[in-house]
Amino acid sequence: MSKNISPVCKLCRREGEKLYLKGERCFTPKCAFERRSYAPGQHGRTGSRSSSSRTGRESDYLRQLRAKQRARRVYGVLERQFRRYYEVALQRRGLTGLNLLQILESRLDNVVYRLGYASSRAQARLMVTHGHFTVNNRRTDVPSMLLHEGDVVAVREGSRGLPYFKALSEQAESRTVPGWLSRDTKQLSGVVQRLPERSEIDGTLNEQLIVEYYSR
Question: Nearest 5 degrees, angle CA 176-CA 148-CA 211?
Fold first, then answer.
């Protein structure tokens, strides 16, 4: 399984905003974006020397690329897999952009994060990889597994004795759960009730620009 091992704080700096990729750390003064909010690289402080900087405006291609890169980084998906999700979304009925976001939201690591059982998608991905979660009572270690309506996600029985999971019930209570999921913190489980609506997905993502990028 391939993964991105580059410093994630640089990804936030490149996008010019916090993507909250490190969970709780992003809310503390230790957050690298708070100390260095400019883009990484030798031209980060002064800005890029591209034509868009000289003219003071961004090209359509640049806006489309940035929208696609931002979505990839938020969900922690590599380019090849992201493009495959787009092709699947293209084949489904309805709006391609919304289909794409629903596919990304349906990933097991994202559902674990949305249920409040992890402080970031990266942490959720790690815990799934280590086999701490089950789907419909079957242990799985595939973070990219796509869930469907009625699927039940739960902490594996053998993992509940670990210190992190013993304190997880109280921690999870303070985290909001979207309406398309239901959660039982006592059982450390959750159910996918339906696919999320657009209003329940990150409003800063621009799916139309992503569709335009791949439609070139």
Answer: 85
Number of residues in the chain:
216
Q: How far is it, in rounded angstroms, from Cα 103 to Cα 195?
A: 9
* Cross-sheet strand order for the sheet of 138-140: 138-140, 133-135, 152-155, 189-192, 181-184
Spatial contact of 129 and 156, defined as CB atoms under 8 Å apart: no
Which amino acid belongs to residue 144?
S
Q: Per the structure block, which two tokens stand in for 149?
A: 């309506």
Rounded to the nearest angstrom, the gap between the alpha carbon of residue 10 and the centroid of all alpha carbons in its chain is 16
202: DSSP letter: -
Nearest C-alpha neighbor of 141 from the set 170, 109, 113: 109
Report which of 11, 5, 76 is spatially closest to residue 40, judged by C-alpha positions.
Answer: 11
pLDDT in tens, the chain (216 residues): 455 555 655 555 555 665 656 555 544 666 555 556 556 665 566 554 444 444 457 899 999 999 999 999 999 999 999 999 999 999 999 999 999 999 999 999 999 999 999 999 999 999 999 999 999 999 999 999 999 999 999 999 999 999 999 999 988 988 999 999 999 999 999 999 999 999 999 989 999 999 999 998
